[in-house]
Specification:
single chain; 1036 residues; alpha+beta; Topoisomerase, domain 3; 18 helices; 20% helix; elongated; disordered C terminus
Length: 1036
């Protein structure tokens, strides 16, 4: 085939056409001439023949995985390279005028040759040169790092220190380099040992996917003595797997690492025309919020948090750390935050070795839940990483998303596999041609034609003439080189020539040719098979380490400890926490990042950040810590509108305002004055006794003002008219209770936090001593309060409102006894983890419905036995959760399910929030399907040796009270009166890890309802009031 018949350029090369968008499109690859030598390659795809392409062994018609690559000694032309102008001998360069372009040259060099990775192989130049140097010295044994550094200096002109650092970073990524010795620790930040002590060699993965001299483009090294690769022919998205950091001149590149298996699956999905998603996976583990990842482009952000667990009430343990941090940096940040008063801890110990373990002792008077939030807010336990995917393509920097980088990598891998197949096809055709010529030459005794020839040319001509009748059988013309090889055959080979063996070899070559041609015709399937082979061979042990979660926002002011005291000088109008305010009136404890709200007697107020000393206005009436967006803090105010105006009363909440902007809680009339004000953190409403000044026509001089009769309105409301008479004094008659009712609480399963914003599952309206019960997958539960700031363990599977009288009926399988048991118990009020099953027991199913029945189906020798219905209430009594319970049966159990009685329809009532009734039915089961076979170990079973295992689902079926369809988490929610029933089946089989609550549960879901009740009060009417003497008032 002619040289220009087919474009041989890579889809990623600078002057290549657009990449094929369809995975099944024709392969983009170069074409080789019939002689097996490559046609002239285009830019970005020069070949040097030094290793064989993957050998194809699959039969025609199937997309077999590519085989390993071998090597041959061949060399392709090498271009001068980027350093050519520095090594040219001819000409003299003058310094005059060089200053005009020196900065541009420097910036371009740093961007292209130092800091930014190439999109084709995902490597920076120093990394590429390290791998190439390691390949040149590779013999399967470890090499000293110092020796590798010295070998790399043949190609990298920037010194041994930078090479060694880059080599250590490559080794710590645990992908391309097999390390031996002390290579440092990415968890603790410990440095690697000196290069003379540690050793390295290429990993099997690197040898498999990184190198192939025949598909590598070469250039001259910086000194012109050696050849180095322009890019390595890596058939894997290495850039996304390892990640990359680099700071160049005027730009930076930050590509986060991704999961090995997920990258391969995404590449396969792209080749097959399916969509995919990619999110970071960090080697240090931790938790990541990727909601703003933005495909790795500029403007995105990834929040990464450490995993913090509670060992006990006063001890926390950090077991995984955020990417870009070390245990040492986290420990230092914790100590620094403690010294600044942001958190209160007693001690922090770093016990990290192979795994992270930082133990924190919390101060006795501090909450561990609040401390966890404070660690995220004030230390390196939470970091925000800004990705910026910048790569080199076509000799220029480009900003590409990670999905686009993956697509280009997959297409480039497909292109490289096609090149390898074409090289392999050319080699096979050459092998077939040589074998056929040899067979003809020997079988037809053409070597006899050489007799009598006096010169080499005469011998060549005689053999060529003798081959003339057989040339039609060949696939290409016979060249002089072919004839020369025939004449150089040794006589011993001719005498021992085995025709049958030669025919078999030719048939095998023909089979390989057909297989290779098939793979070339189905290149997409071949590339998918390649990825699948890599995944199966190297994907074990590379599961995702970073948990993807959506984080709840932590307000620093809510979790900061009180490390300062607020003072106020009311007369002069100063306030603050500095030393200069120590002699003033103390107000309260606060933190140095809090906001404070300051009121004057005239009703003007401002919200500002606390400082050492600040001035607002003379005559400060009230000052306190302000909580932004706090809907439950209510301000009860009685004020005079103007100098001789009426008395107004109001209740309002001050939520979000602009900091340092002045507002007015009155109408704003000049010379208005606050007569009484109280700040109530839970909406309390007091009763005041108001004494009016005596007047001739005033019959009632003492009046009660009950703030609970006022509606809570906005801060800009004028309020209601109270009186027009003058006031003698105001006395607090009674402190009232909260008028806001209970607190509606939801549980957000995504972030595992409680909230009052309506996110997640509604748990109910809580007040006073109400409690929650928390169930975990370790067959444990505990009782806790409804504090919105508390954290739940990772094993949490369900959170419910706690009812001390609720009875739970539970079935489990005892592996030791090989029997199924049922027990009934009420949950104990304890904040410690309570195990309701032993270690050798497997949870099967549970219900809390009264009057339920348990249906037992049988199998094996007792398969014909009808199912039994057991009255749960009568079968076993209510005891402690520690009780063993009562054995159900000795027969072979096929399935267990709770059947609940049908209840009469309930009358329509007031709707509750639409996510369900927190006191509704509870149910669940282990979703693991039971295996067939196996018997309960009993004499009646006849096969006591086989233990029956753990069951499957046991949950609600039908309607349970007012709410969603139980047993279907996706079901509709609402007011659905109906019969409560259970129809969840648990199957017996191999015991699995016990889970007290499965995904199919019986609690109806519920939504939100507006909180608060509004009341109206009649406006009092009277004559004009006198001027009130403030000194006679019992003010706030």
């Amino acid at each position: 085939m002619a040289e220009n018949d087919k474009d041989t350029r890579s889809p990623l090369s600078g002057d290549a056409p657009d990449m094929p968008g369809t995975p099944g499109a024709d392969m983009p690859a170069g074409t080789f001439a019939a002689s097996g030598t490559p046609a002239a390659p285009g830019k970005g795809s020069e070949l040097s023949g030094d290793s064989a392409a993957p050998a194809s062994s699959g039969a025609s018609g199937s997309a077999a995985a590519p085989a390993e690559t071998g090597e041959e000694n061949a060399a392709a032309p090498t271009r001068p390279g980027r350093f050519g102008r520095l090594t040219q001998d001819e000409g003299v360069r003058k310094l005059t005028g060089m200053y005009r372009n020196w900065f541009l040259d420097y910036a371009s060099y740093v961007i292209l040759e130092r800091a930014v990775p190439h999109v084709e192989d995902g490597l920076k130049p120093v990394q590429r040169r390290i791998l190439h140097a390691m390949k040149t010295v590779d013999d399967g044994r470890y090499n000293k790092v110092a020796g590798i550094v010295g070998e790399t200096m043949k190609y990298h002109p920037h010194g041994d220190a930078s090479i060694k650092d880059a080599l250590v970073q490559l080794g710590q990524k645990d992908l391309l380099i097999d390390c031996q010795g002390n290579w440092g620790n990415i968890l603790t930040g410990d440095e690697a040992a000196a290069g003379r002590y540690i050793e390295a060699r290429l990993s099997k993965f690197a040898l498999d996917v990184v190198f192939n001299r025949k598909t590598t483009e070469w250039m001259r090294s910086y000194d012109g003595r050696n050849d180095e690769p322009v890019t390595l022919p890596i058939k894997f998205p290495l850039l996304l797997a390892q990640g990359s950091d680099g700071i160049a001149v005027g730009l930076a590149s930050k590509i986060l690492p991704h999961n090995f298996v997920e990258l391969i699956n995404a590449a396969i999905a792209h080749l097959e025309g399916r969509d995919f998603q990619l999110y970071p996976d960090f080697p240090t583990g931790g938790m990541a919020d990727v909601s703003r990842y933005n495909d790795g482009l500029r403007g995105g952000a990834v929040k990464v948090r450490a995993k913090i667990s509670k060992i006990d009430k006063r001890t926390l343990a950090i077991t995984e750390i955020p990417y870009t941090t070390t245990t040492e940096s986290i420990k230092e940040s914790i100590i620094k935050a403690n010294d600044k008063g942001k958190i209160k801890i007693r001690k922090v110990d770093d016990n990290t070795a192979d795994k992270v373990e930082i133990v924190i002792q919390v101060a006795p008077d501090e909450s561990s839940d609040k401390t966890i939030d404070a660690l995220y807010a004030f230390t390196d336990c939470e970091v925000s990483i800004a990705p910026n995917a910048c790569v080199i393509w076509d000799e220029k920097p480009h900003f590409l998303g990670v999905k686009e980088i993956l697509r280009r990598s997959a297409e480039h891998t497909k292109y490289l596999l096609g090149r390898e197949l074409e090289i392999r096809l050319g080699e096979l055709q050459e092998a077939w041609h040589a074998a056929s010529l040899e067979r003809i030459f020997i079988e037809h005794r053409l070597y006899q034609l050489i007799e009598g020839c006096k010169t080499r040319e005469e011998a060549y001509a005689a053999v060529d003439k003798g081959l003339e009748p057989f040339k039609k059988q060949l696939r290409r013309e016979v060249t002089t080189e072919d004839v020369q090889k025939l004449t150089e055959l040794k006589f011993i080979r001719i005498s021992r020539y085995d025709t049958e063996k030669a025919d078999n070899e030719i048939r095998q070559i023909e089979e390989d040719i057909r297989s290779t041609q098939y793979h070339l015709a189905h290149l997409t399937e071949y590339a998918v098979a390649w990825y699948e082979r890599i995944r199966d061979k190297y994907g074990k042990g590379r599961e995702r380490r970073t948990e993807l979660r959506e984080f709840d926002s932590i307000e620093a002011t809510k979790v900061a400890v009180t490390n300062a005291r607020l003072y106020v000088d009311r007369a002069e109008g100063f306030f603050g926490i500095g030393k200069s305010m120590k002699d003033a009136e103390p107000v309260c404890d606060c933190s140095d990042i809090d906001d404070v709200i300051v009121f004057t007697k005239e009703g003007r107020y401002v919200i500002t950040k606390v400082s050492d000393k600040a001035f607002f206005q003379k005559g400060i009436y009230y000052i306190g810590v302000f909580k932004r967006n706090d809907e439950r803090t209510i301000y009860n105010v009685l004020y005079r509108d103007g100098k001789n105006g009426p008395l107004m009363m109001k209740r309002c909440a001050i939520k979000g305002v602009t900091r340092d902007k002045e507002y007015d809680i009155t109408k704003g009339t000049p010379k208005s004055e606050i007569l009484y004000m109280s700040v109530n953190p839970n909406g309390e409403a007091e009763v005041l006794k108001v004494y009016f000044k005596p007047r001739p026509r005033l019959k009632k001089v003492i009046v009660d003002l009950d703030f609970s009769t006022l509606a809570i309105k906005g801060r800009q409301s004028q309020g209601n008219l109270f009186s027009r008479y003058g006031i003698h004094k105001i006395v607090l008659k009674e402190r009232g209770a909260s008028t806001l009712g209970g607190l509606n609480v939801w549980f957000d399963e995504d972030v595992r936090r409680l909230n009052s914003d309506g996110r997640g599952k509604w748990l109910g309206e809580f007040k006073g001593d109400d409690k929650l019960i928390v169930w975990t997958s370790k067959n444990q539960y505990y009782i806790t309060g409804y504090d919105l700031g508390q954290h739940f363990p990772d094993e949490t599977v369900r959170v419910d409102r706690y009812d001390p009288d609720r009875i739970y009926s539970l079935c489990y399988y005892d592996r030791g006894q090989r029997y199924y048991y049922m027990k009934r118990f009420t949950a104990e009020t304890s904040d410690r983890l309570q195990a309701f099953l032993d270690e050798d027991a497997d949870f099967v199913c549970v219900t809390d419905c009264r009057g339920a029945q348990l249906e037992i189906a049988y199998k094996g020798a007792h398969a014909t036995r009808p199912a039994d219905l057991v009255d749960v209430d009568e079968f076993v009594g209510v005891k402690s959760h520690r009780a063993k319970g009562k054995r159900l049966t000795t027969y072979d159990v096929a399935a267990l399910r709770f059947v609940e009685p049908e209840l009469p329809p309930e009358p329509d009532g007031e709707e509750v929030p639409s996510d369900g009734d927190p006191d509704g039915a509870f149910g669940g089961g282990n979703p693991a399907a039971a295996a067939d076979g196996g018997a309960v170990g009993s004499e009646d079973a006849g096969n006591a040796g086989n233990a029956s295992g753990n069951g499957g689902h046991a949950g609600c079926d039908g309607h349970a009270g007012n709410g969603a369809v139980p047993g279907n988490p996706e079901g509709p929610a609402g007011n659905v009166p109906g019969a409560a029933g259970r129809d969840a089946v648990s199957r017996t089989g191999k015991p699995a890890a016990a889970k007290p609550v499965a995904a199919t549960h019986g609690l109806p879901q519920s939504g939100t309802v507006a909180g608060g009740v509004e009341f109206e009060i009649e406006r009092a009417k009277g004559d004009a009031d006198e001027v009130i003497d403030p000194e006679q008032l019992n003010l706030f």
